[in-house]
Amino acid sequence: MSNIQFDAYTPTWCPGCGDWGIRVGIKTALQQLGFDPSKVFLSFDIGCSGNMNDFLNGYAMHGLHGRAIPTAIGMKVARHDMPVIVIGGDGGLYGEGGNHFLHACRGNHDITVIVHDNMVYGLTTGQVAPTAEQGYKSKSTPRGIIEQSVNPLALAITQGATFVSQGFAGDARLIIDLIKQAVSHKGFSLVNILQPCVTFNKVNTYQYYLQKTYKLEEGYDPTDMNDALKRSMEVHEEKFPLGVLYKSERPAYHEQIPQLDEPLTLRQRFTDFSKFGEEFV
């Protein structure tokens, strides 16, 4: 186990925010995996979740809103020997960056995506986010949202992700276990975490999730895609399964690129770019 702490500064989140529990889960999981902060890459999105960039010590980058996934993919292709983790909210990763999420699943890029799913844009004071249920009222949708909600679990499963799980910010032990499994999995891993926003979301509270969530039963088979999809659709019945919903094995994206023969990285391999410039002379 690494003796280097994954601490930086004291968080400034609202008291009771689900981000506190998620931070504990990520920090503890990385410590238990024995990672040195300089040996793991963290790609942070914008928002309350992205503020964790200041509160979690690691080799990290704080990118543009919705662009944390392509940043992570770039690092994985360049340094495919390094664990790469994305940390962002449902607005950034399923909204602004929804296209990146979809295609990262398709490619089975070997990254772990941890999503703070609170159904609102918390940092900009509570506008409706993509995972909010149809009819949800916010300052941006005072009469209720018209669109259907994004189902991140079903989307990930159907688009090719090979590890799909869901946790709850009120259960740090489960979050730790899911993150450790996700990071250890080779391929695209999703850890969607139901995260109450105590300031702006007065519907999906801790009490709400304590009543509506359930842990996948012992003996549940995560390799059964049909059952996994069935469980993912239970969100429309206000039932939220917790645990590893789906898991499969297939080659990761970087393993199928002949240019990435070990142990060379892209930086080591491509040092002479003159031939590329000659094409435009």
Overview of this structure, please?
The protein is an alpha/beta fold and 281 residues long. The chain has a single domain (18-278), classed as 3-Layer(aba) Sandwich (Rossmann fold). The protein is 31% helix and 17% strand. It has 10 helices and 10 strands. It has helices at 18-32, 68-78, 90-96, 98-107, 152-159, 172-184, 206-212, 225-232, 266-269, 274-278; strands spanning 41-44, 59-62, 84-89, 112-117, 120-121, 127-128, 163-168, 189-194, 213-215, 240-247. The strands form 2 sheets. It has an 8-stranded mixed sheet, with helices on both faces. It has a two-stranded antiparallel ribbon with strand order 5-6. Helix 8 (225-232) links the parallel strand 9 (213-215) and strand 10 (240-247). Helix 5 (152-159) packs antiparallel against helix 8 (225-232). The N and C termini lie far apart (54 Å).
